[in-house]
Amino acid sequence: MIKNPLDFSNKRVLITGASTGIGRACALLLSQLGAQLVLNGRNETALQETLSLLSGSGHITAPFDMINTDELCDWVKSLTKDHGYLDCFVHCAGVQITKPIRLFNQAFFDETMHVNLASAMAIAQGFRMKRDRSKQGSIVFVSSIAGLIGQTGNTVYGASKAGLMSLTRGLSMEFLRDNIRVNCVAPALVDTDMATRTQKSITDAQYQHMLNQHPMGVGEPSDVANAVAFLLSDAAKWINSVTLPVEGGYLAN
Amino acid sequence: MNRQQFLNSLEEILELDDNTLNGDEALIDIEQWDSLAFLSVIAMADENFDIVIEGDKLEGIKSVNDLVDLVADHLTDNI
User: ipTM higher than 0.85?
Assistant: First the structure.
């Protein structure tokens, strides 16, 4: 019998930012592929909604305030103790605020860097410590093409997402001995609440300009989830340390 | 934030000296009013008042007082 390399049966996956958008799409797809999920997000009601949409059973929600970086490692260890080893981790949690450099301040920098980058690192720290090392572990960070290109008013977000790409390369080497792969996806504009908020804060002409930069149109959350599932799965067992652009040809434009 | 503090924030965004705006200024006459200032006002309103000023609404305004009107309901000295 041929084993499907995209089969996630008997794999437990932690997803941050699972209450909406790309995180929710990842949860839906991975549950359809047989994974057992641990869903994290800031909005408990929305997390419950994600939970209600999942296929299969054995999924749980694990809301946790990510504000204290130093508590995240212990939080992951307690999840493992209570619910069993984690095999995979997807970091979708992220914040984006359009803010030109003239409004830059430390609080803005710290919040963006904390949610988008530091929490990924702290959770990866806990993930590495408590796991079944006989099985290959896999981490996927959801970055953004904002980390590869320059966008007016989006510099701190871009820096945090470029940081995730660098984190991918560093951790993938550091985790070799732990049998954990670390990869990253870099989506362009995807039809999510975050994109709607961006659209509202600019003019129609500016939004149209943004759309024109996407030769295949705006992406769907499931487009990104497909790439995440692939990199997370055994189908990618010899793929490590890459950032995969998922951008409908944006970068070729 | 009161009206004067809002004007002071606009001065900061527009890189003007303190207390140079009174509200009657036409935006077209302010050299520093550009697309980045535009994005900055949206970000400032979001941060201070938790409101999203829709881009098209901002595109239609002509004066500093029009900008004040956009956030007037959220200013502490609005009467």
Answer: no
CB contact under 8 A, A103 and B56: no
CB contact under 8 A, A153 and B39: yes
Q: What is the pLDDT along chain A (253 residues), one digit of tens a residue?
A: 788 999 999 999 999 999 999 999 999 999 999 999 999 998 899 999 999 999 999 999 999 878 778 999 999 999 999 999 999 999 999 999 888 898 899 999 999 999 999 999 999 999 999 888 889 999 999 999 999 999 888 999 999 999 999 999 999 999 999 999 999 999 999 999 888 887 877 778 888 888 999 999 999 999 999 999 999 999 999 999 999 999 999 999 7
Q: Cβ neighbours of residue A68 under 8 Å, at least 6 residues apart?
A: none
Catalytic residue numbers of A read: 157
Name, in order, each residue with C-beta under 8 angstroms of A96's C-beta and a sequence gap of 6 or more.
A112, A146, A154, A157, A194, A198
Give all domains of chain A, ordered by start, each with its CATH number. 12-189+225-245 (3.40.50.720)
Q: Which of A137, A146, A131, A141 is nearest to A168 (CA)?
A: A141
Q: Are A150 and A111 a contacting pair, CB within 8 Å?
A: no
* Contact call for B55 and A102, based on CB within 8 A: no
CATH number of B3-74: 1.10.1200.10
B43 contacts A103? CB cut-off 8 A:
yes
Residues of A in contact with B58 (CB under 8 A): 203
Secondary structure percentages of chain B, helix, strand, coil, to 5:
55, 5, 40
Write out the two tokens for B23: 């509200």
Residue B57 in contact with partner chain A when CB distance is under 8 A: no
Q: Does B15 touch chain A (CB under 8 A)?
A: yes
d(CA B61, CA B59): 6
Contacts of A99 in chain B (CB under 8 A): 39-40, 43
